[in-house]
What we know:
The protein is 62% helix and 11% strand. The protein starts with a helix and ends in a 6-residue tail after the last helix. The protein has a 6-stranded mixed β-sheet with strand order 6-7-8-3-9-10. It has a 4-stranded antiparallel β-sheet with strand order 2-1-4-5, covered by helices on one side. The chain is elongated and about 120 Å long. The longest helix is centred in the middle third of the chain and has 53 residues, at 218-270. It is an alpha/beta fold.
Amino acid sequence: MKKEKQFYRKVLLTILLHKKLYVGLWIFFCLLLVFLQILFALVFQNLIDAITAMKLDDLQIQIIYTCMVISGMCVCKYLRQILYAKYQKEIFQYMKALLMKAIFNKQIAIFHEVPDSTYLTYLSSCMTEIQTKFFDSLQAMLYDILLFLGAVFGIFYLNMMMGCVILLMTLMNICVPFLTRKKIMTRTEKSLHMNTIFLSYMKNIIKGADTVKFYGMEEAIHTQFSDMNKKQETCKYQLQTVLCLSDMIIFLLNYVTVCVPWFIGAYFVLHGVFHLGTLMGISQLNNNVASPLQDFFTRSSLWQSGLKVMKEVLHTIDLPMIDHTNKIDDVRSITLQSVFYSSQHHKILQDINLTFKAGKKYLLIGESGSGKSSILKMLLRYDAPDKGSIKINGEYEVSQITNVYENMHIITQDNFLFEATLLQNLTLYQTDIQEDEVITIMKKVGLSHLIKRLHDQIIEDEIHFSGGEKQRIAIARALLHPSKVLLVDEACSSLDGIMGHQIESLLLTLDVAILIEVAHHVYPDLLPCYDEIIWMKKGEIYKQDSYESLCKDKEFCNFLNLKEA
């Protein structure tokens, strides 16, 4: 818990002080605005004194000073608000970038534990809540404190005794309502509890409506309902009486806070302790004593609500991420050692021992549910084994390698297209890939007819491409973004026989360190191109050998509908 609090405090401070210059300037203009408000009270004091003394020259000077101070306050207020708006812009850009980086920095398995809608909520409505509840409340609370301290200082400067009176009245205005707070909380809890009981009772009765009618229970039920209804409404009434009392006390104290200083001040004026102008100046500052404190306590609950949302978002940043300690420059081998994996108590992989070596091509075959695709998911860290290890180059656990996706790509049956142009979907926003190169690859994978649509915008809700076209777009991506390890999961499942054969042939000629392919439908003439074929059954490796050896196996040939060699 202590470590978690330290983390939140550290990240919060990092975010809040991301733009220290803006924070410093904002505080400066807040202080300047508070100072000008004190100065306004002093000028106002002199203005009233000039009026009561019937001094026209002094009155003209004080009017000029008053206009100057008001102008200064307007400029300060505007600059303070502009600075805060600029600060918010920079902070939310930074925070959303930090969150986005954290989201995509997570391990794939952990990333998919959170629904996509949650990430969207964090980046949209949560950000709005953080802005309105956390940041807006925080800056308003800070200004309230400065305003209160400045007003108290100004009043004490004008008259010590009046300062003590106003401070006492303000504290009373804040503390007295707390006397009813405990009773309000108790009666609120009682009312909520009664509501829960009433709803539970009604739910039970409505569900049993048929029984009530069949057995003529209406009168008994109406009696029970009347009793429950009376109890519920009585609890609500008791709560309202306490709230009315609390409102009346607050209403009375607001007037007491204003009137008592005026009564005492008037007494001092009549006895020559100070002039009427001083009383008017104190009255002006008194407006900035009680109100900011009341606003502060009101906003503090809103700020706490915003802080909860902020912590929820920060928790996303704090979820386990990729360990940035190991990087690989090449892939010499991938080893699965004694790997076991289950999902929802269903055994998917059992004691898998495999080694994929550089310079070789592998084909995984087997019936649906035999665990072929699960092996690919393990390599990509979508899932983690329950037991066993998966190591790259016999040294690093695949889960601990930072740049695993720089070295390993996959072509699947389900290929996502961004709402962007076809060109951007093929280049994946990499500007160093030339359009001529893209066109060449498109011709290779049978997308020549889409070249004229290269700059067309793709919209999610509109059907732009067939399943086969999407599959070929995914294959074109793999060709444009070569990797050391290429995983292929039913890449040609949506293609016709001729195109499928053409694509399979193309994949087998790619310059990759390791090719691992999962397929249901195989092309017999291409099987010799694989260095090793791995036949899986019920989550286990059933047979594993070269095509030259397996083609002599009758069971293998029957499974793939091949003629036995």
